[in-house]
Amino acid sequence: MNRSQIIRRIAQGWLLLLISVPCSPSGPAPFGGLHRGIHILAFAGAAFLLLLISRTRRQQIRGVIAMCLLGLFLESAQHLVYRHPMEWRTCVTTPWLSS
């Protein structure tokens, strides 16, 4: 396996965890004060991996937009499924800070 294939596999696993952990049947775990930091770390890691495997500027832009939309989707899903209050502050700031 070459470098790009390894990074692609890591990115796939990272995104799988990023989607599956908040949508697990038990719901997302409360982290208290670390909540926002974990959001930034998770989305920054995913955005960084997507930027590493991007070959063109267009792919980089699409990766950043995809992370923003994924964050909005996950927060909306948590709000609808678990009846948590919508975290607009997290939706608005986290993807942009991590990109």
Task: Describe the structure concisely for a colleague.
Helix content is 75%, strand content 0%. With 99 residues, it is mainly α. α2 packs antiparallel against α3, α2 packs parallel to α4 (88-98) and α3 (57-82) runs antiparallel to α4 (88-98).
Describe, in plain words, how this protein is organized in 3D:
It is a single chain. The chain is mainly α. It has one domain. It contains four helices and no strands. The chain has helices at residues 3-20, 35-53, 57-82, 88-98. The longest helix has 26 residues, at 57-82. It is elongated and about 40 Å long. The model has no long low-confidence stretch (mean pLDDT 81).
List the main descriptive attributes of the protein structure presented here.
99 residues; mainly alpha; 4 helices; elongated
Protein topology:
Blueprint: H1 3-20, H2 35-53, H3 57-82, H4 88-98
Helix pairs in contact: 1-2, 2-3, 2-4, 3-4
Estimate what percentage of residues fall within beta strands: under 5%
How many domain units?
1
How would you spell out the order of helices and strands? HHHH
Number of strands: 0
Number of helices: 4
First and last CA, distance:
28 Å
Gross morphology: elongated
Largest sheet: none
Overall pLDDT, averaged? Answer: 81
- Regions with little confidence, pLDDT below 50 for 5+ residues: none
Assembly state here?
Answer: single chain
The percentage helix is over 70%
Helix/strand structural class: mainly alpha
Radius of gyration: 14 Å
